[in-house]
């Protein structure tokens, strides 16, 4: 079994779990996102047909927002209700997020919506803030594996 296949198998959750997690507060969803991001070493986002990040413009914050989710099921739920034609859900490995994606999004002045759920608030942060949160969470996660 390849690393990708193992990650995909680990990341599978039931529809009952999806509903339960989508009903949680933005704080709880954010912690779950960090846990899953570190555990699976990937997160899900949306791409437009031109392979560019897909999201929306937030007039209040005057910036483009890119969503991320901990599992494919959440991104598909969002995609089914909010996405435009041709958008698709894609996993991005943790290393790629940290090394390439987040710096590029920071430079382009995007913000990240963490684990958005329709009809509920989510944390929106700078890519550099998410990178800091992930690096701090990763240290705790790695430490828990050792002890």
What do you see in this structure?
The chain contains six helices and six strands. The chain is α+β, with helices and mostly antiparallel strands and 147 residues long. It has a single domain, classed as Uncharacterised protein PF11572, DUF3234 (Trna Endonuclease, Chain: A, domain 1, 3-Layer(aba) Sandwich), CATH 3.40.1350.90. The protein has a four-stranded mixed beta sheet. The protein has a two-stranded antiparallel sheet with strand order 1-4. A hairpin with a 4-residue loop joins strand 2 and strand 3. Helix 3 packs across helix 6. The longest helix has 20 residues. The two termini are 27 Å apart. The N terminus is likely disordered. Pfam families: DUF2750 (PF11042). This is DUF2750 domain-containing protein.
